[in-house]
Amino acid sequence: MGNFVAPPYRIKMVEPIKQTTRKEREKYLKEAYNNLFLIPSEAVYIDLLTDSGTGAMSHFQWAALMQGDEAYAGSRSFYRFEKTVKSITGYQYIIPTHQGRGAEQVVLPLLTPRSGMYFISNMHFDTTRAHVELAGARAIDCVIDACFDIDTYHPFKGNMDVEKCLAYIKKYKADNIAGIIMTLTNNSAGGEPVSMKNLRAVSALAKKYHIPLIMDGARFAENAFFIKQREAGYEQKSIREIAREMFDYTDIFLMSAKKDGLVNIGGLIAIKNDTAFFQTCQVRTVAYEGFPTYGGLAGRDLEAMAVGLKEGMNEHYLRHRLDQVRYLAEKLKHAGIPIQYPSGGHAVFVDCKRICPHIPFDRFPAQSVCNALYLEAGVRGVEIGSMLLGRDPETGQNIESPFEWMRLAIPRRTYTYAHLDIVAQAVISIYEKREKIKGLIFEYEPPVLRHFTARMKYE
Ligand SMILES: *Cc1c(COP(=O)(O)O)cnc(C)c1O
Question: Is 233 left (phi over 0), alpha (psi -120 to 50) or beta?
Answer without folding.
Answer: left
